[in-house]
Amino acid sequence: MMAMIWIFGIDERLRTTLTKGENEIVDERAGIYYDGWEDEEINGTHSLTFSVPADRPDSAHVIEGNLAMIEDRTGAYRLFEIVSLDEYHDEEGTLYKEAYCEDQGISELNDEAVIDVRPFSTTARNALERVLNGSRWRAGTVTVTKIAGMNGYYENTIKALASLQENFGGEYRFRVTFNETTGEITGRFVDLFDHRGTNRGKRFEWGKDIVSSQRTVSIDELKTRVYPRGRGEETGSGGFGRRTTIADVGWSKANGDPADKPLGQEWIGDEEARQRWGRPKDGVPGWSSGFPVWEDINDPNELIQLGWEYLQKVKNPRVTFGFKVADLSLIGEEYSHEFSNLGDTVVIIDDHFDPPVEVQARVIRLKRCLNDPTKTEVTCGNYYQEFSQVIRNIDQEIKKKVGVGDSVSLLDQTMLNLQDQFRSTLGFEYATPLLGRMWTNRPIEEKPDSVVQIKGGMIAISNEWDDVNDEPRFRFFANGNGITADEIRTGTLNADLVNVETYSGENSRLARIWNGAFYSYYDDSLSVVAGGYIVAFYDNGLYTPNPDYSYTGSISLAWYARSDDEPGDQSNRGIAIATEKDFVTIGHNKASEGGVRKLTSNLIFDYHAYSTGIYGPSKPSAETFSDLIIIDSRRRLDEENGSANGPRIRLMSGIKNSNKRVGDIEMIIGDGELTSESANFTIYKNLAMDSWEQVFRIQGRDDTAFLGPDGARLDWSPNSTDTNSAIRFGCDPYTYMYIGSTGRFHWRVWDGSGSNLVMTLESSGSGASLKVKDSSGTFRPVSLS
Question: Lowest mean pLDDT: which of 36-50, 285-299, 485-499, 523-537?
Fold first, then answer.
């Protein structure tokens, strides 16, 4: 592999290529470099340094902001940004430029923004694609298979990548693709490997290729028992209940389990580890407790197994080894089997430790000399940092504990009290290189309970003395990264962003005030946004095989135009309830089994099914009385008889006052306050757009029902001879058949001038008499014999 360095301008056009500087080079115009070093750590920094003679023409392109590219040991192109230059003279007086370059992926993505990316229960590739969306970088090779979630909100992309790695695991590599023919950078990719490197069977041994070694033993993370907890059961309100524990699981060594754990106990421990490492407590070794959480686990049996496996990792001191070794594969072809690369798993054998060390480790850092590969340095170890630890410009989160209910007047009085206390308190000052500068309210030997200390670019404030450690207990710290305090009291808080976060051990809650709006999060998922004239709701992703946490619906200010509005005016104002998903419903909440709130819908607009439903109240049995009334807002309902003045539709079922209603439906037209006005009930059928035809109409004032569009009718108004009831069937007001309660049947027809009676059938004794009008206008009886 040729160790070339390609130099691009800030416009990313190829400017020149540099080759290794050699003594035999005669052409003084050739582009060369010296002291080229690529230095890369797993999930860590990745830098390139090199020097160029300042008097050569190509050195003019080695300037801040330009780009440098090399090919790494795997053949991948790695792009760097020149971030700083130093100039120096050698012993012969030759002027050189020394360039320091950082991986352009980290530099560029540090300036890109992630606004709101909160995938849940997804793949690492999907999460990586969403984090990189909007940037020039794309998801490349992804071998991580874990299903998890992450949280990226109003932060730079490099910080979001750190959050992704913390949740999914894996090891990053930033690379580009390059067309050597055109000299163009054709793509930018972020790879996420489950494990960089491989196991080639390489062995590093003292006396052969180990240059230096170090062993570190630490008990700072040692635990002898753990309280495993899961995500918690889903609730009807869209959240999660108390976290799942292992209290309902019992283990017994007699039954083949790895430890004894009785039912009801929420922790599992290792007795041997407690006896070895437990601090004395009441004469016996105490437990050292850990609280691991598995967000995707709800099964207690699976949870206890994971907890036990976790305990095996943390119950003993953490032993780490660091080795610096020589890469013998670069000496010559006969040593090619000694090759190792970043991330490779290797075996370290060092007899100088007591006891001797033979451990499996990884190549965690590779410092490659481009000019002389035999100088390449390899660092091995069994512990390496997370990606987030190398992001130098990530702002620290300030957790605030805000008191609720303190009025401004109370704050003012508190300030006055503090001012009086400040004036009357003595001050004692101490200054030493160890202490820095310290001010106290009484001599240090009297254990002051008010201390301010400044040293090393930090300010610390204490309001109590720690008797155990015999020093101030500081509750306030300030440095260049921000302020961290146990409690902040304030009147008006002016800030670009305010976070209030709580964690109950079951669920996390976050309230965020930003840009004039209120944001609410539940277990890292955005749930509500309120600001301006809208309250927006977001999906919780529960009870669906394809969770979607996007915008669901809102309650907002709404308006539309009146008929008499001028163009552009919207005089009708109101409130709108809307959704971008499937339905809107209004109903009743009640507690069901287990105390979960259950919604019973009474009004539902289902856009997915293209339906609107109006439902009566829910009831426990068929005999329970229910009453659904659709009426205008002037309804005045009497509890005894359900009377009302306005038109209405009423659906009743069940038993009320010993009166059984089996699916009764009542419809009342007319208005009790406007009895002189006619009221109609009409059914139409659509013919076309904005065109319809009457099918049926009841005209309340005339006690008449109309059938069809041409006036066919039915009415029940008796004439003067039928005082009880009557009915008319007719084609129009003049042609009809009349049936009276006295037993009369009359037939009338239109004769050109009015309605003419042409036939009668009337009761006569125990029989009937039929008469028909002849052409002369005379009624003549019709013999029925």
Answer: 485-499
